[in-house]
Amino acid sequence: MTPAISFQQVHKTFATPRGELRALTDVSFDIRQGEFFGLLGPNGAGKTTLISILAGLARATSGRVTVMGHEVVSDYAAARQSLGIVPQELVFDPFFSVRESLRIQSGYFGVKHNGAWIDELLEGLGLADKAGANMRQLSGGMKRRVLVAQALVHRPPVIVLDEPTAGVDVELRQTLWQFIARLNKQGSTVLLTTHYLEEAEALCGRIAMLKQGRVVALDRTSNLLAGTASTMLRFKTDDTLPADLLGQSRVTGRIAQIKARDAIEVEAVLARLRAAGVRVEDLEIGRADLEDVFLEIMNGAEPPHVTQPPRAADQAEPTLAEVAR
Ligand SMILES: Nc1ncnc2c1ncn2[C@@H]1O[C@H](COP(=O)(O)OP(=O)(O)OP(=O)(O)O)[C@@H](O)[C@H]1O
Ligand SMILES: [Mg+2]
């Protein structure tokens, strides 16, 4: 089957006053039709740049990108028609109402008699009571919902969401994910970037991680989670951890998290804390989550699965849409 999205040896450099900036280096991977795929990476890793190239808003310095088989430069119109993009930046036309802006977007893609779908979008994204409101009158989170609706108005088979939940409240996030998950079940491909790693962990079947413009990990979410130290001690303390434990620890205010491979190492860590006189409150022992994996990979530790899995195995994996059928 034609991949929904294919990145082949994508390089991107920006000319800056201080010389050339390499934003993307040799990015190559495919996203299959029906996948819910996560693209993660710290600020400046190159996620938005890659999405801009996909959307035809920026040109790759070299390499090839296709959407549903259409090359994004030579076959721009077909590629763009296959894509619904929710941009990271809030951009909107202040002169129109919510419904008008959706109608205009429909027209832009040549979709006529789209009223029923527009109503469904307004309903599904919790915008029904704002349909007549001017874009200027909306709060930031509501504007973001309208951007999502605009991206979906022509029923694109491939949906790209660049930080769709930044600044969005909990209830809205749940509404949004229910709606997107339903479209994914019905066969849409979803590419998501987010800094909320628990969202990525819950939603994405596969994840690619970018670091300084390179793909440093790409695997099924479950494999990424399985490949890391499996146990995590979490507790509160006012004391400083002993230096020899800091390498495997993450400290956020009073909360300390320490990785351990197995039960024996858990015991060793506890013994070390006791010996160092560290007072431990509210101790919990749990599984490592995607945030732990992410930090491990970004901090340069040998990532559990660096390169792409072999093609054949890769393609044998059922997609969410296939599972749903
Ligand atoms: N138009 C541009 N001109 C010059 N440099 C740029 C341009 N756009 C992006 N960059 C640089 O390219 C790099 C990647 O930026 P990009 O916006 O793709 O990161 P990102 O992964 O989306 O980050 P964030 O998580 O903050 O959204 C950064 O170093 C950024 O400064
Ligand atoms: Mg970005």
TrEMBL record:
Question: Which InterPro entries does this entry report, sorted A to Z?
Answer: AAA+_ATPase (IPR003593), ABC_transporter-like_ATP-bd (IPR003439), ABC_transporter-like_CS (IPR017871), ABC_transporter_ATP-binding (IPR050763), P-loop_NTPase (IPR027417)
PROSITE patterns, A to Z: ABC_TRANSPORTER_1, ABC_TRANSPORTER_2
Q: Which Pfam families match?
A: ABC_tran (PF00005)
Q: Its domain of life?
A: Bacteria
Q: Which SMART domains match?
A: AAA (SM00382)
Q: Which UniProt keywords apply?
A: ATP-binding, Cell membrane, Membrane, Nucleotide-binding, Transport
Query: Quick one: where's region Disordered?
Result: 301-325
* Domain spans labelled ABC transporter: 5-237
> Molecular function (GO) terms listed?
ATP binding; ATP hydrolysis activity
Cited PANTHER family: ABC TRANSPORTER ATP-BINDING PROTEIN
What is the name of this protein? Answer: ABC transporter-related protein
Instruction: Tell me which species this is from.
Output: Leptothrix cholodnii (strain ATCC 51168 / LMG 8142 / SP-6) (Leptothrix discophora (strain SP-6))
Its lineage opens with: Bacteria, Pseudomonadati, Pseudomonadota, Betaproteobacteria, Burkholderiales
